[in-house]
């Protein structure tokens, strides 16, 4: 199973040799087996990658993420097809049963708000509005308790007056972390034969990843907690700039150990199990589903396993 996250942050050429990804910099030459790579992030505008390397990583179902001049994820390369994708699978998705769609969305929103409430408790800022929103969720969240909770949640953990619409370092970090998780969820959807553009709640015609946007919701608070924890001057980071250290810490959250439906695992692996459960439920392959994502009360930052 692929497990390595490789970040290329300086001038480099990335090529393929003997089923190894070769990363040639001005001073060094690194060889990494294709089968080891889960995510390759090009965090530089001075990197070159060959089509042979792209195709090899694609066959290995790795995600390749490119960073723009502002330091944010701008695009990704991942497989666009799967042996599991066929006319029957697409017909299934287009005709997902309404009751199952609504049931799953209710569980997703419930899990998200539970984790938002947990983050508030971990940060010692409990919030009655979020707790009330959690208790008022109806089937399919028809009263949009998700939005009510969000309006109270972000000012609670980032300070009064904070807005997700502002251009600042914290929002940049949140968007960066969300994009990484979104990419992995999109990959899991694709390799299981489903279309990312057909969602269960999000339905924007200009969003090719509506389903990924739906399924990632329970994992957003993991990013929120990390950014909030490091959002003040600490011994680890000074969060007055969106620095490379902050980006590396966000990427390394893929190696965070958490609990999904009572079972411990790394976030990068739990995402696959979770997406698989959701799609099997929607495709009527199973009749019962739980969405219980429990995050630890400390989301720490460790050294990532491949930084060049």
Descriptive overview:
The chain contains ten helices and eleven strands. The protein has two domains: 4-77, Ribosomal Protein L15, Chain: K, domain 2; 87-294, Four Helix Bundle (Hemerythrin (Met), subunit A) (Up-down Bundle). The chain has 308 residues and is of the alpha/beta class. A hairpin with a 3-residue loop joins strand 3 and strand 4.
Which fold name corresponds to the CATH topology of the largest domain?
Four Helix Bundle (Hemerythrin (Met), subunit A)
Give the ordered list of helices and strands: EEEEEEHEEHHHHHHHHEEHE
Class per helix and strand makeup:
alpha/beta
What coarse outline follows from CA principal-axis ratios? globular
Approximately what portion of the residues adopt beta-strand conformation?
15-25%
Under CATH at level 1, the class of the largest domain stands as Mainly Alpha
Order of strands, main sheet, comes to 1-5-7-8
Q: What is the end-to-end distance?
A: 22 Å
Number of strands: 11
Q: What is the tally of helical segments?
A: 10
Q: In a nutshell, what does this entry contain?
A:
Keywords: Antiviral defense, DNA-binding, Endonuclease, Hydrolase, Magnesium, Manganese, Metal-binding, Nuclease. With 308 residues, the chain is α/β, with parallel strands linked by helices.
